Amino acid sequence: MSQPMLSGIIAYPVTPFTPADGKVDLPTLGIVIDELINSGACAIAALGSAGEGAYLNEQEWQQVATYSVEHVAGRVPVIIGISELTTTNAVLRAQFAEGIGADAIMVAPLSYYKLSEAEIYQHYAAISDAINIPIMLYNNPATSGIDMSPAFMLSMVEGIENVTMIKESTGDIQRMHQIYKLSQGKVPFFNGCNYMALEALNAGAAGWCTAAPCLIGDKPKALFDAVQRGEAEEAQELFSQQLELLEFIVKGGLAATVKAGLEMRGINAGLARKPLLEIPEASLLKLKQILQRVNA
Which of 67, 121, 167, 259 does the annotation list as catalytic? Predict the structure, then answer.
């Protein structure tokens, strides 16, 4: 298995839709991907929460996955997000991602019935057995309905061949400290909670998974670099500049707020797909003011 060396900003593009008919807009996706790479991203992660992967049909999902790999064209690694209720469908998508040349997949188990750790473990093991590319464990109970403890996730890294890294998105900094301590700093973990970026990087996170570069360019990378250099005051200042936006896009819903912000930047990525709604007029005004301050 080849292991992509990931350290830094893993950037998340939205999935643009054409304003007229709501179909996937691949040319605009290409523009967004190019901007993210130019912002200093160490990888592109398509079909995550910001990419509305859960709202695409199978043909659309395959379109976006394939186009993302082809358009990136090896400039940085590409990670494909997979969140499926059934192990069978998750395996099929993992195999598709590997087949089109994705460098890794990010897997969040979904729950209708409450799953035991044994059931979650076999889910990841079955996916791993079907492919030969790295898997990032994605712990985000707010969207998946499943909360995996640091010890359990590390047991999967230890016991499942292709599971090599963790994205922790609960918003609990103690989880990250535990991952670092229990693994003796050997298992790379990534922050998935935007407003905790500085704390997470200081806790030993290998990087930060975020859609923020869609709106503020290389500023997240500048924060990461400042932490790496040990420039604590500079890192705090950079984080303080970004914090209001990071909190806003999380609270307002990533897809809707990032698309609204892209529109303000002259990139028409369409609307988030229903049942998601446009952000209210008052929120649009606030977002515009925040972006003006951050990008001043």
Answer: 167
Give the pLDDT confidence of 65-91 residue by residue, as tens digits. Answer: 999 999 999 999 999 999 999 999 999
In the chain the domains, ranked by start, together with CATH numbers, are 8-294 (3.20.20.70)
What are 126-139's pLDDT values in tens digits?
999 999 999 999 99
Provide the greatest CA pair distance for the chain: 52
pLDDT of residue 144: 92
In 163-293, beta strands by DSSP E: 163-168, 189-191, 207-210
Of 67, 138, 195, 221, which one is the catalytic site residue?
A: 138
Q: Per-residue b/e over 114-126, b at no fewer than 16 CB within 10 Å?
A: ebeeeebbebbbe
Predicted local confidence at residue 296, as pLDDT: 81
Contact status, residue 197 vs residue 216, Cβ threshold 8 Å: no
The pLDDT mean for the chain works out to 96
CA atoms lying within 13 Å on the CB side of residue 175: 22
What are 87-95's contacts with CB under 8 Å, separation 24+?
87/122, 87/123, 87/126, 87/127, 90/123, 90/126, 90/127, 91/126, 91/127, 91/130, 93/61, 94/127, 94/130, 94/131, 94/135, 95/130, 95/131
Residue with tokens 């912000």: 261
Q: Is the per-residue pLDDT at 1 higher than 60? A: no
Q: Is residue 122 over pLDDT 80?
A: yes
Residue 112 identity (one-letter amino acid): Y
Per-residue pLDDT, averaged over 109-136, amounts to 96
What confidence score (pLDDT) does residue 3 get?
58
User: Which are the contacts of 59, defined by CB distance < 8 A and separation ≥ 6?
Assistant: none
Reply yes or no on whether 181 is catalytic. Answer: no
The yes-or-no answer on residue 138 being catalytic is: yes
Residue 137's DSSP bridge partners are 107, 166
